[in-house]
Amino acid sequence: MSTAIEPIVGRYAHIDIEGRRHRVYWEEAGEGIPLLCLHTAGADGRQYRALLNDPEITESFRVVVYDMPWHGKSSPPPDAGDEPYRLTSEAYIAQILAVSDALALDRPVVMGCSIGGRIVLHLAHEHPEKFRAFIGLQSSAHVEPYYDTSWLHRADVHGGEVCGAIAYGLMAPQSPAEHVAETVWHYKQGGPGVFKGDLYFYKVDGDIRDRVDEIDADGCRIYLLTGSYDYSCTPADTSDVATRIGVEMIEMPELGHFPMSENPEAFRKHLLPVLAEIRSSEG
Questions:
Q1: Is the residue at 1 inside a domain?
Q2: CB-hemisphere CA count at 13 Å for 174?
Q3: CA 36, CA 68: separation in Å to the nearest integer?
Q4: Residue 148's domain is classified under what CATH number?
Q5: Domain that holds residue 49
């Protein structure tokens, strides 16, 4: 069997985020309209490996995927010491804008899943002029806590095993075993307390229920896609957001909380028409 070399290029950038220097890792492939992808809580940019390798997408889009600080190959800030990690809405927005500016992305399309799908709503509300389109995967305005997050970071529990188990339960039974296993593995590799820190945004600070009605769907393009098999962000949760904004919600049958990672082939069938519409709108 011959060696297959993927077209993905990975690099590091030293970026100032909220006055602190960060060493941020990102991967990219393709040329054209910038498409900035945001991974889920506790994971990293490997979730978008299929998009980065999809020639039908990369022939028209420059797909850029970065690991959030503290995640994957991106480090905590060098002065972090024993500082506990906790993600807030303000910090999340600041890092996205800083990465976009540092990589010279001209009004990118931004696509995020789970916490990324939530922050997409914040970006559409606060910074619609900085992006040409918003794609929210598993987007909800809020989620009620459904388990005790202290189990994700405590001395008598293997945090990686717990995080992997939670991720496993959020995927559809129809998803291919190899992709499910890889998605779980990414979660098992997360840094201590990082998944828990991300969930502070997802379950507490990122609640945007009181501002959803202020998002101007006439002033920006918004697409909301949600897998049917997801109890963390149900189709009903996304449908409520879509109705309040005034856009259509696309339900993806037989997909769960990590559509781009757990079943890339099924996901691309829903994503390609969205990207085609964005591309055609560019003239």
A1: no
A2: 16
A3: 12
A4: 3.40.50.1820
A5: 9-281
